[in-house]
């Protein structure tokens, strides 16, 4: 039997935008149903970073295949325009070694 975390991937996307926090939150909530419908997306956290106008999305994927399929989607391609990014997002991808809970 495989451990539940085997194959899970964490993706962190850091964004710098011209938008204010309330605007970012409104857009994120409007787009949430589209993200909930993505196959293989286990969880997504929307987080505030610092300095101001910096935010991040922390995604938990069931596999690298699911992450790759998302990267090729129109939804992924729409992020820069939807959030009015000032520069290319910083993306980090991590393999889960084990899960505490």
Topology:
Blueprint: E1 9-16, H1 21-36, E2 41-48, E3 54-61, H2 64-71, H3 74-77, H4 79-82, E4 90-95
Antiparallel strand pairs: 1-3, 1-4, 2-3
How would you describe this structure to a colleague?
With 101 residues, the protein is α+β, with helices and mostly antiparallel strands. It has a single domain (9-95), classed as Alpha-Beta Plaits (2-Layer Sandwich), CATH 3.30.70. The chain is built from four helices and four strands. The radius of gyration is 14 Å and the shape is globular.
What would you call the structural class?
alpha+beta
What is the count of structural domains? 1
In the sheet with the most strands, the strands line up as 2-3-1-4
What is the CATH class?
A: Alpha Beta
Order of helices and strands: EHEEHHHE
Largest sheet: 4 strands, antiparallel
**How many runs of DSSP E, i.e. beta strands?**
4
Strand percentage: 25-35%
* Total helical segments: 4
CATH topology: Alpha-Beta Plaits
What proportion of the residues is helical, as a percent range? 25-40%
What gap, in angstroms, lies between the N and C termini?
A: 18 Å
Second-tier CATH architecture: 2-Layer Sandwich
Which shape, going by the Cα principal axes? globular
State the low-pLDDT regions, or none.
none
Mean model confidence by pLDDT? 93
Gyration radius, rounded? 14 Å
């Amino acid at each position: 039997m495989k451990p539940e975390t085997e194959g899970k991937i964490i993706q962190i996307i850091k964004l710098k935008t011209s938008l204010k926090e309330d605007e970012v939150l409104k857009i994120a909530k409007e787009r949430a149903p589209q993200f909930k419908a993505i196959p293989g997306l286990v969880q997504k956290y929307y987080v505030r970073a610092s300095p101001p106008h910096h935010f991040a999305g922390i995604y938990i994927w069931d596999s690298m295949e699911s992450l790759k399929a998302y990267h090729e989607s129109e939804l992924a391609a729409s992020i820069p325009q939807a959030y009015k990014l000032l520069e290319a997002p910083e993306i980090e991808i991590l393999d889960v070694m084990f899960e505490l809970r």
